[in-house]
Amino acid sequence: MKTDDRQADMTEHSDAPSDEPMLRRRKAHIRLSNEAHLLACAEAVFAERGFEGASTAMIAERAGVPKANVHYYFPTKLALYRRVLDDVFEEWHCAADTFDSSDNPVEAIGGYVRAKMALSQRRPLGSKVWASEIIQGATHMQDILSERVKPWMESRVVVINDWIARGLLAPMDPRALLYMIWAVTQHYADFDAQIKTLSGKRALSKKAFEALTEEVVALVIRACGAKAP
Amino acid sequence: MKTDDRQADMTEHSDAPSDEPMLRRRKAHIRLSNEAHLLACAEAVFAERGFEGASTAMIAERAGVPKANVHYYFPTKLALYRRVLDDVFEEWHCAADTFDSSDNPVEAIGGYVRAKMALSQRRPLGSKVWASEIIQGATHMQDILSERVKPWMESRVVVINDWIARGLLAPMDPRALLYMIWAVTQHYADFDAQIKTLSGKRALSKKAFEALTEEVVALVIRACGAKAP
DNA sequence: GTCTATAGACGGATAGAC
DNA sequence: GTCTATCCGTCTATAGAC
């Protein structure tokens, strides 16, 4: 690991015993920084090849460190993979929080779709790791799905059913709506290779992605059959 | 390969020279039958593990044959993978044909969504192989995307824009609509592990899947903002 | 905390008997 | 067409010098 710049903050240390806590802090900083670097590289390799297809050697090479260092920071390939999944879920959870239960379903759903589209743009690799894991049976994240995603979904089902009962949305299966939002927004991260080939373009500009986001919001809002409260 | 039942149709052959064509036909039948069996097993393994994660040994084991037989019928793992992708595309293409350019966009789009949902139910493993391949960069099917999928998409964009110009659909980006249809319908095949965990059920009954299909059709038709012609 | 070297299992692919 | 045995490369993980 290229430690030259990472260790720059310790050049002014002395021999005094009061240095010990600082040393500890420095070491902790090195560990956290290297872990974060490896996690980012691992996310890219897992996205490009899936769990079994990825190798610790590829992750090490991308991080610019010997293979053994990967095992120093993460005991096994599976432990590293699991940490990537946990990280990705944390961001998913933040976006999920934007789906509030206000009286205005158009704002709540529209805001959630925008948050999910922004996440697809900001972290497409994480979305791909998540998608690959589920496609391959979700064996390494059953706990996340049942303990974290499922309760969230059930709470949103209640909210959506309430909106429907009050005539704010068309009658529908709330789960089908949530699956639709996930599928459509994550499609732009997971299937970007297909989209690039079909559009003939390399990637979307920031402006173009904003316009696309509003297209998706409009589609989803119409799909809801939202009426004025 | 368990040849006992597959060779039953040759027990009555004689020494006459007229047998030669029959022998050829029998051998051709064995080849086609074994190829089809291996392709089906390969599709399952590729769906469960992705291209790099799958091994020829796993495919052979699932097919009940020694590993060498896989290489007898398909020279390389990549050639076998490519044949699976071609097979999956052929069914995709059949479903795509149901999207006609009639004067009734509700019927055309609704029929297409039903065909795609039926395909997700009938062949979820193929959908997963396709999805994994695209997530991992679509490097092994660029030709299918640019030579087969892209022309189809462009022809449908023209049709949808025509419907919009005639006031039959709400103004929208036709590509965003097509991506939505793909994403939503394929979600039920690709993400079935997540859906099972979130719903707490093992799998959907035939009746339940029909009801779900109509939910999805209703969502998509509303998203189109379809009006009576 | 970093690195080289290597153990031990498994990968794709092939040779050659039957 | 089928199968056993095997080549050779890469895999995950670890040992041990620095």
UniProtKB/TrEMBL annotation, chains A, B:
Q: Which domain of life is it from?
A: Bacteria
In residue numbers, the region (Disordered) covers 1-22
Which intervals hold domain HTH tetR-type?
Answer: 32-92
According to its UniProt entry, the protein's GO biological process terms are: negative regulation of DNA-templated transcription
State any single GO MF term: transcription cis-regulatory region binding
Binding region for DNA: 55-74
Pfam families for the chain: TetR_C_3, TetR_N
Q: What is this protein called?
A: TetR/AcrR family transcriptional regulator
